[in-house]
Structures are given as structure tokens and as C-alpha cells.
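hi! just following up on the protien thing from before. the input was this:
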Amino acid sequence: MTTGPIRVLLADDHLLVRRGLATLLLAFPDLLLVGEAHNGAEALELCATTHPDLVLMDLFMPEMDGVAATRAIRERYPHIQVIVMTSLNEYDYVQRALAAGAGGYLLKNAGADDLAAAIRVAHAGRPMRAPQSVEDMARAAQTPELPPPPESGADLTDREHEVLALLAHGLTNTQIGAQLNISRATVKFHVSSILSKLGATSRTEAAALAVQHHLISGPE
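and the predicted 3d structure came back as:
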């Protein structure tokens, strides 16, 4: 399990739905959107390149639906959790998705807090039991919220904040070293520590997280 934000991949064939979900995710510092797919086949492909912790999956999509995509992702990447987005008239499909390996489901009209809570619960490895009725599904979809994790980047040192700010402005390790009057090797050490503490896999992602979590000021 990652120590940084929970990396989320969205899979839905409707652009407006993806944009809405992406906006909701931005409200939570412990959630990070890493990619968007317009069908199940693309979601499966993006798992290899975006390395999500969790896929938020629509059930009905072209080429490969949510049930088939859930099964394929869970077989190929068992560490990646899946939550299916559903409505109350899709009870049978929810049953099939859970049987295929989905860790949970959420009603499409759920609010931002319920969305974040469902993601945290699934990421923590707490699978949701299969509902016994439509009414049961409606009740179970209201997941209890887990306490949010510590703010990303809260444990950065003052020096790491300085390095991160320069890194985010595109400076190389050599340029950062010259600016802060430290060796290139020391800069490299700080960059490695920053990536680890932020749960980032690249300098670009670290810079994006720094802006998202207000660790540095955004571009002027």
C-alpha cells in the first residue's frame, strides 16, 4: 500500500461524468487522479502505465464493460482495488461485479464525502459484502468514513521544501545545488526523500502534488 495519496483511475464513457468525478477528487488531499479511461479495455491498459491503487469503474461501457474490466484488472493486477459506480436498477450487475473481484460499489448520486469514504475503505482492503436486495444495496452503499490520513507532505523538512519549490520550477539538480549552495549529490538525496514522502513516482508528479497540497505556490 502506498504511503502517499491514493492513486485513482476513472473509467466511464461519458466525459462529463469523468470531469465531475475528477472535480470531486480534487477536494481531498489524500486522493490523486492519475488517469481517465472511456471504456474497460482502456482502463486495463492504463493500469500498466498509471499504476493506480484503485479504479473507479462504470458498469456499462463500450468494448469492455465494467464487470469484464473488473475481472481482468483483478486477475492481472490483484493489488489494484475496484469500486463500481451503479444505480439501484443495476442490482444484478453489482452482484456480478463483486463476484468478479470489485471491492465495493457506490451509487452514482453519492456525494463527495461518500465517494472519498468508499475509496478509502476499499483501499484499506475492507471488501463490501454482496447486497441481498435493492434496499440492502442502497443502505450498504452509504459507507462509514475512515479518518483521513495525514496531510501529504506534512513531514517535509525546511530544506526539502526549498528543493521542492525549485524542482517545481523546472530546475535541474545541478541548478538547484548552485542556488542553495549544496552539492549535486545532496540535492539528489533530497529529491529522493521528497518523492518518497509524497508517494510520487517522478519529479513532474511531485511538482503537481506540491501545488495540489499547497506546499508551494502555483505558477503565476
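Residues 184-198 form the longest helix (15 residues).
The radius of gyration is 19 Å.
cheers
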